[in-house]
Amino acid sequence: MESLYFQIEPAFQKSFLNFGIYAIIICIILLVGVFAILWYNKKTIPVDPWEIPREKIGLVKELGKGNFGHKGHEKMNCAMSTVQKNTSDLELKSFLEDAEIMKCQTHQQKFEHPNKHNGEEKLYTN
Fold first, then answer.
1. What is the 3-state secondary structure (H, E, C) of the chain?
2. Where are the transmembrane segments (predicted)?
3. Burial degree of 94 (CB within 10 A; 0-12, 13-18, 19+)
């Protein structure tokens, strides 16, 4: 039985090499793009100076339930409103607008500096 040999044409080898190089370049560009987007998004999320760390928040006693969530007495000696997980975007927007208004108002029953925490699951404000 006679052995058969074949030879890959140099043009095919060159085009296959070019394909590999292009694939690597495209992967690098995509990775750089993804990291740039992640960095930009992290950089552009505004941090509210009134925001407080989640560690300082802890429910002591539930005071009642409202339209958006519950109200409770917290470790910080304050009342706090929360937004439920399944709250619609429209209700969340309304809640945040109310929180912004509360920052500007002053009266006897309100703290001078209300705080809010924009966590993964809930948004808290007092």
1. CCCCCCCCCHHHHHHHHHHHHHHHHHHHHHHHHHHHHHHHHHHHCCCCCCECCHHHCCEEEEEEECCCCEEEEECCCCEEEECCCCCCHHHHHHHHHHHHHHHHCCCCCCCCCCCEEECCCCEEEC
2. 20-40
3. middle
Same domain (yes/no): 86, 112: yes
Structure tokens given for 88: 């619609």
Number of domains in the chain: 2
Q: What tens digit of pLDDT does each residue of 89-110 get?
A: 888 788 888 877 777 766 665 5
